[in-house]
Amino acid sequence: MRNIISFMHISLDGYVAGPNREMDWIKADEEIFDYVAQRIGESDTALYGRVTYEMMESYWPTVADKPNASKHDIKHSEWYKDVHKIVLSGTFESQHSNKTTIINHNFVDRINEIKQQSGKDILLFGSPSATHSLIQQNLIDGFWLFVNPIILGQGIPLFVGIKTKIDLKLLSTQQFTNGVTELNYIIEK
């Protein structure tokens, strides 16, 4: 069975974006990019909500073609083009490539079907609304969190609508020189 792992940058007080969806507080640098590239290279499926997918789709397919593309841009663009993408959306109908699956109804059943297929971990990138829905339906299997050294005080929280406690097992941690700490958890079931 495949696992869905939620990959998020998060503030120390639990927010994944500011009150206006801003993410300018996230600290990302080459050290983090290199670390993340290793892990995402081990996955074969990316899961997005519609808003995050549209943001990714407008940037990653062509960024490597730009003359000032960084090593990270080139590497992630190649991965993005190759990975299978799943988009959760009640309104999004179009499909940009044969490597994209749109789930716009019966998402619990469809996600469970995908989890039963052979393959590697499914990484849920950002997508707070999709993450909230999947947590509430017990479809998330782990959290890969990058805790940024900032307290936002308000914004979009990672954890909302949780009705029962969720026990986690810490698999690994990594500290980065910019002050970010990675926490890799699996949900104990």
CATH class: Alpha Beta
The CATH H-level superfamily is: Dihydrofolate Reductase, subunit A
**Helix and strand pattern:** EEHEHHEEHEHEEEE
Shape category:
globular
Strand order of the largest sheet: 5-4-3-6-1-7-10-9
Estimate percent helicity. Answer: 25-40%
Q: Which residues form runs of ≥5 with pLDDT under 50?
A: none
Indicate the CATH architecture. 3-Layer(aba) Sandwich
How many structural domains can be distinguished in the coordinates? 1
Strand residue percentage: 25-35%
Terminal-residue CA separation: 14 Å
Tell how many strands the DSSP assignment holds: 10
Domain Bacterial bifunctional deaminase-reductase C-terminal: 3-180
GO biological process, one term: riboflavin biosynthetic process
GO molecular function, one term: 5-amino-6-(5-phosphoribosylamino)uracil reductase activity
Protein name: Dihydrofolate reductase
Detailed description of the structure:
With 189 residues, the chain is of the alpha/beta class. The chain has one domain (4-55, 83-187): Dihydrofolate Reductase, subunit A (3-Layer(aba) Sandwich), CATH 3.40.430. The protein contains 5 helices and 10 strands; from the N terminus they run E-E-H-E-H-H-E-E-H-E-H-E-E-E-E. Strands 5-4-3-6-1-7-10-9 form an 8-stranded mixed beta sheet, with helices on both faces. Strand 9 and strand 10 (181-187) form a beta hairpin. Helix 1 packs parallel to helix 3 (71-82) and helix 2 packs across helix 3. The radius of gyration is 16 Å and the shape is globular. This is Dihydrofolate reductase. It holds the Pfam family RibD_C. One of its GO terms (molecular function) is 5-amino-6-(5-phosphoribosylamino)uracil reductase activity.
